[in-house]
Amino acid sequence: MRIIFVNLHENGFFVRTLANMLTFKRAITKHAFILKWLLENDIEVLNYITPGCSGLPTKFLRDLARNAFTQKWISKFVLRRNKFPARRIKMITDCSGIEKDDIVIYYGTFDDSQFETINKVKGIKIVDQIHFYGDKDKAEIMRDKDIRYYMYEVDLRKYSKLFQKNYSWFDGKYIERPYAFEDRFINKKPLNFRKNKAVAMGTLTKCLLSEFIETYDTEYYQPHRKMIMDHASEMEEYIDSYISEFQEIPRKQILKTDFIAVKIYKKFYNAFNAGKQKQYFSFNMVDKYNEYKMFICPEDVNGSYGIGTIEGMACGCAMIGWDYGAFEDMGMVAGKHYISYNGTIEDLKEKIKYYQMEEHQEELERIARIGCEYVRNNYSQEKVAERYYNNLKAIHDNQI
Q1: What does the pLDDT read at residue 128?
Q2: Three-state SS at 248
């Protein structure tokens, strides 16, 4: 079975891309462990480079690099810099080399070059919807493309209003692709030596599309994170918040009336400064989780939990989660594996206050311990990567 990733070298979930390197940006390679596991287990992995592939900053650089020769060179360079054996990942630039039983994985978050040849591809097409936005334009790009499966942390059909609205045509199947914690996230401090408060984690991102705002009545993907920020002063006894805006340095707005030189300056400014999250990564997250008895990493409006949810639980911190069904889908039980609340600031305060009481410390310790054990047994990178491969193998063998 061959697994083909589309424009792998431009996928920031697997590698620190050339654009990241040129702009000195950190890459949040949440799926790098999957690629590492596949290669370590001698699974045949290919990188299909589409004709329009180029994720470089500024249109000038993108146009220069938009050819097969340059992209092959960039692919080899990027993979080697990310310590992946480039020789083990075959590159193809012609989709005619893709067979009908190949697994071909697209990423719905990225630009349209991912899908420019999808109608010609003969393989089994899967879209990973990580950081799903749900806008109609992207849905229409994917429509009538013979996409048979989609991957995500949760079932978007159940939890996303925009998926229900804009992907009503999709009759394929959902394949769970959960987050996993890195080995560095460990439980290294007994609960009774930790602060008797909750720590709030996560970044806050916006969507200014009118369709999104009308659907969710907010411009924020994580409204519960915004809720905690807005009530920070009244929650001081209960929560220490490390939630911060993704755009810590505001992007410069490019206006039609700007001179060409000004537009170029603004584009380079945004490329080098937007989304660096220096504040959010200024502290050690493992130490921070181990500093507190409880934590909350609020979910997004499309139903996905944050990767911090898995990381915090792996550190032996009791997770506080919105009671909406996704954690039960993951096999967790409220009051056993995690602390549930109804999504309001009032209920969040009451739940934390309850577990801060001396008479409930034993109950809190039990939830933290059972939750930690469950996550460590089911959401390590090894377990998640193996499950990922087994899901693809089942698809290939027509078992799903």
Answers
A1: 97
A2: coil
